[in-house]
Amino acid sequence: MKNLSAHDEKASNQNLRAQRPMLRPKKSSQKPMKPTKTERITKYRRPEMRTKQATDGARDGPAEASRLST
Questions:
Q1: Where is the composition biased (Basic and acidic residues) (predicted)?
Q2: For residues 22 and 32, what is the distance between their CA atoms, to the nearest angstrom?
């Protein structure tokens, strides 16, 4: 790496910059992370799933509800 031209030196710097994101998770663990897309979706999907299970018995009728509860 001694006899690098200015262009080669710049290219090697870009290569180092490309490898840097691997170091990021350690750094971001200190501050609260922004939720990913799937986390944002499931945050709103989970309560719906809970209410759907709760309303299943009422929608299927009393016989079905008693069978599910036992």
A1: 1-11, 36-62
A2: 18
Residue type for 11, please? A
Give yes or no for a contact between 57 and 69, defined as CB atoms under 8 angstroms apart.
yes
Are the C-beta atoms of residues 1 and 12 closer than 8 Å to each other?
yes
Say how many C-beta atoms besides its own lie within 10 A of residue 65's C-beta: 14
Residue found by looking up tokens 């990021």 in the block: 24
How many angstroms separate the CA atoms of 43 and 29, rounded? 21
- What amino acid is encoded at 55 in this protein? T
Every domain of the chain and the residues it spans: 36-70
Check: CB of residue 44 under 8 Å from CB of residue 33: no
